[in-house]
């Protein structure tokens, strides 16, 4: 939830997979098991894995985003 708050009203446009759709302690989503995701959030950007909360500027740098920030 903390990661999404950094994006304000734009958070709903972020593509993501909910790894724990049933809540903490529930079964994990298949994609998260396959990718061995243990830390939230986990980002996959340009073939690189990044774990933990990242600021929008950090995500822009990793992705090569050149638009308005």
Q: What's the mean pLDDT score? A: 91
> Which shape, going by the Cα principal axes?
globular
Order of helices and strands: HHEEH
Can you tell me the CATH class? Alpha Beta
Q: Strand order, main sheet: write it out.
A: 1-2
User: What is the CA–CA distance across the termini?
Assistant: 21 Å
CATH third-level topology: Glutaredoxin
Supply the key terms.
69 residues, 12% strand, alpha+beta, Glutaredoxin, single chain, two-stranded antiparallel ribbon
Architecture overview:
The protein is an alpha+beta fold and 69 residues long. The chain has a single domain, classed as Glutaredoxin (3-Layer(aba) Sandwich). It has helices at 2-5, 30-34, 56-63, and strands at residues 42-45, 48-51. Strands 1-2 form a two-stranded antiparallel ribbon. The two termini are 21 Å apart.
Sequence-ordered SSE layout with sheet pairings:
Elements: H1 2-5, H2 30-34, E1 42-45, E2 48-51, H3 56-63
Antiparallel strand pairs: 1-2
Summarize the structure.
The protein is α+β, with helices and mostly antiparallel strands and about 70 residues long. It has 3 helices and 2 strands. The chain has a single domain (about 1-65), classed as Glutaredoxin, CATH 3.40.30.
